Amino acid sequence: xxxxxxxxxxxxxxxxxxxxxxxxxxxxxxxxxxxxxxxxxxxxxxxxxxxxxxxxxxxxxxxxxxxxxxxxxxxxxxxxxxxxxxxxxxxxxxxxxxxxxxxxxxxxxxxxxxxxxxxxxxxxxxxxxxxxxxxxxxxxxxxxxxxxxxxxxxxxxxxxxxxxxxxxxxxxxxxxxxxxxxxxxxxxxxxxxxxxxxxxxxxxxxxxxxxxxxxxxxxxxxxxxxxxxxxxxxxxxxxxxxxxxxxxxxxxxxxxxxxxxxxxxxxxxxxxxxxxxxxxxxxxxxxxxxxxxxxxxxxxxxxxxxxxxxxxxxxxxxxxxxxxxxxxxxxxxxxxxxxxxxxxxxxxxxxxxxxxxxxxxxxxxxx
Length: 367
Ligand code: KG4
Ligand code: ZN
Hints:
Elements: E1 9-15, E2 20-28, E3 34-43, H1 45-48, H2 56-78, E4 87-93, H3 97-114, E5 118-122, H4 123-129, E6 141-146, E7 151-158, E8 161-167, H5 173-183, H6 190-198, H7 223-235, H8 239-271, E9 278-282, H9 289-301, E10 305-307, H10 319-330, H11 349-354
Parallel strand pairs: 1-4, 4-5, 6-9, 9-10
Antiparallel strand pairs: 1-2, 2-3, 6-7, 7-8
Helix pairs in contact: 2-3, 4-10, 5-6, 5-7, 5-8, 6-8, 7-8, 8-9
The structure holds 5'-O-[(R)-(carboxyoxy)(hydroxy)phosphoryl]adenosine (KG4) and zinc ion (ZN).
Zinc ion binds next to helix 4.
């Protein structure tokens, strides 16, 4: 469903759910066209790198220190003032709650001080709309959301209307990339480093397990692959060994993403017979060229148009949060100033409640 809208929305977006402090200004015109007026991302990678992963306390403190500067920079780069905004959108979860609270509180303060409507955005909804930042992507579409915290297939029918078709039972694909990269001695974040190492590698040399063989459906599992690859990494000594293992890991993750996506395409096309079919991949792992290429081929083979966000909007950013907010505002949707920060917040709450893929206290997919 496309929004029935009147005027343009000019929205300040704020994103602080993980290790990037980000702010952006996005203008969504009445005809649905989108202009990113600015998108500022202050990465905390250098602060977390010594620990090989994101440290929540360090992240929260770093967000506090940089949020005002990053927001001011986003407004300056966009050439707008607070008075030009029609709304403010902040990530309210899921994510590291100390960080989420920083961006959400900042957004509430702006909303209160300027009399603007607030949208408390689900970070996953931001990724879901991210392809719409680069091109016109009409609803409905099939979405593979694949990042460091999430790995799920969703039928996206319209603004905020998502149905989960499958999700990971343990690690997210980006988490598998990161942990295996760490076992290979690569710097954090591991995904891009592993992609570079895999360039000179032979993906056929190391056999890796295939997860959930014989199981129907669209769920994922990466923990067996992670354990097997970490063991093989101990014996991979030469540069060629390491490149071959990196290539094998990338191929195994890509194959699983493609196989499950193809099953979801079959389901989705049965449900949407006679309509235009579109497959969208979003999230940090969508930046991987092997993954993108294989998914594009799968989409083509199943009669789906293929979309992926511009590379800058694959990983966490605030432009996608601003756009998710603008789409909601254009439908008259906003949130009260006591909207809570939510560490866990599945996009499709009904499916998540009926079929939980995690239990509290256990590590794994956030949704
Ligand atoms: O979407 P994102 O920035 O944050 C989350 O919401 O999780 O995704 C970050 C994840 C990390 O796990 C990172 O290693 C992975 O995306 N990633 C990649 C690549 N670029 C980022 N994985 C594989 N290949 C890449 N080129
Ligand atoms: Zn993300």
